[in-house]
Amino acid sequence: MNIGVVGLGLIGGSLGLDLLASSQDHNYVWGISRNPETCKQAEEIAAVSIASTNIADIPDRILAQTDIVVICTPIAAILPTISEIAPKLASNVIFTDVGSVKSAIVEPALKICQQFNQRFVGSHPMAGTAFQGILAAERNLFQNRPCVVTPSDDLEAVEKVRSLWQSVGMNVYECSAEEHDRAVAMISHAPVMISASLIAACQAESDRTVLKLAQNLASSGFRDTSRVGGGNPELGRLMAEYNQSAVLRSLQNYQQSLQAVIGLIENKQWEDLESFLANTQSDRAFYVD
Ligand code: NAP
Question: For residue 22, what pLDDT is reported?
């Protein structure tokens, strides 16, 4: 298979590494990125067979035989990128993306692709690290991690995109863009805002002696609860901007929950508080081991 990867960062680079390393089916991966240095580094680490800032540099016979193009740019660049490169690719090619939101992408992307008799299936491979850029790319990033693929009447395209993610070890779930966005708001996007707010609340402490002591005492608990709030600010902003209603819904549910906890503490309802925490202790297992 010939695969195109556009946006050679953590996700695009890691995908290319795995596709080329298991090159039985995926014998050619071409890449596009904005920065010439990124393209050079992607070739050096074998994340791509060839990369350029300009699609015109990819040989025509490779473009003509491309099966799937995976758009791995930041969310805001996904639709403009498809619009830019679709006219340069053969009809029938399948586009997919890796964006962390789906409703804002799937319908408009499908419309763009249909203008060129091309196909689109949305994806969200749920794997990542705290790092960015091509040098953060790593082998086996996707192994045993979940990946959402959005449904389409084009069953063959869905099957090909599903197989692509399965070939790098992902467990694929099919769901609508709206369901994806609501679920991901609960377990990924709202937690970023909650964790960031925790860090901001600590910084609001005005007693510098206490603040300094907190800095010295912060250990694994604070590391766990602050981790996602200390991640890539651009990605966090885009999650909220492109998934606004679902993120707000999750944060409002959280606000109610927090208000209830404050009430229990203010009213010294210690037994009720313990019951609440006993419920959350067992409910956590519903989501994670
Ligand atoms: P990243 O490491 O910053 O990589 C994005 C790469 O895209 C950059 O290295 C940049 O390379 C390139 N790029 C930026 N704007 C571009 C444009 N307009 N045209 C072409 N290339 C462009 O980010 P990432 O973490 O891989 O995230 C990429 C996508 O994956 C996002 O849509 C995000 O929602 C999704 N995602 C991220 C994670 C995660 O945890 N990180 C998980 C799942 C999905 P240059 O050096 O060439 O500018």
Answer: 83
What is the DSSP secondary-structure string of the chain?
Answer: -EEEEES-SHHHHHHHHHHHHTTTT--EEEEE-S-HHHHHHHHHTTS-SEEESSGGGS-HHHHHTEEEEEE-S-HHHHHHHHHHHGGGS-TTPEEEE--S--HHHHHHHHHHHHHTT-EE--EEE----S--SGGG--TTTTTT-EEEE---S-HHHHHHHHHHHHHTT-EEEE--HHHHHHHHIIIIIHHHHHHHHHHHHHHT---HHHHHHHHHH--HHHHHHHTGGGS-HHHHHHHHHHTHHHHHHHHHHHHHHHHHHHHHHHTT-HHHHHHHHHHHHHHHHHH--
The answer on 150 and 138 residing in a single domain is yes
Verify whether ligand 1 is closer than 6 Å to residue 77 (CB atom): yes
- Ligand 1 center to residue 94 CA distance, Å? 20
**Tell me: the pLDDT tens digits for 213-247?**
999 999 999 999 999 999 889 989 999 999 999 99
Q: What is the pTM of this model?
A: 0.93
Q: Which residue range(s) make up the domain with 20?
A: 2-175
Q: Is the CB of 96 under 6 A from ligand 1?
A: no
Q: What pLDDT does residue 26 have? A: 60
- Do 208 and 74 lie in one domain? The reply is no
The string of pLDDT tens digits covering residues 107-161 is 999 999 999 999 999 999 999 888 899 999 999 999 999 999 999 999 999 999 9
Verify whether ligand 1 is closer than 6 Å to residue 132 (CB atom).
yes
Residues 156 and 186 in one domain: no
What is the CA(71)–ligand 1 centre distance, in A?
Answer: 9
Q: Are residues 139 and 262 in the same domain?
A: no
